[in-house]
Design goal:
Elements: H1 30-41, H2 49-58
């Protein structure tokens, strides 16, 4: 038995308006802002206390 043919997808005419698909913006919390501020004030890099703590938590040795 052969499957039923799939109908073609309609293609808008070239003179129609473009389709706009809404999307969510980034979700930035106050905690995120505080953590970023802390990192910037500490000079950034891997010496920031939160980074050091995360590296310790992830260490497997």
């Amino acid at each position: 038995m052969t499957p039923a043919p799939v109908p073609p997808v309609p293609v808008p005419a070239p003179d129609s308006a473009p389709v706009s698909v809404p999307h969510n913006g980034p979700l930035v919390t106050e905690d995120d802002i505080a953590a970023e501020t802390e990192a910037l004030r500490a000079g950034g890099g891997s010496t920031v206390p939160r980074t050091t703590a995360l590296e310790s938590d992830l260490r497997t040795d």
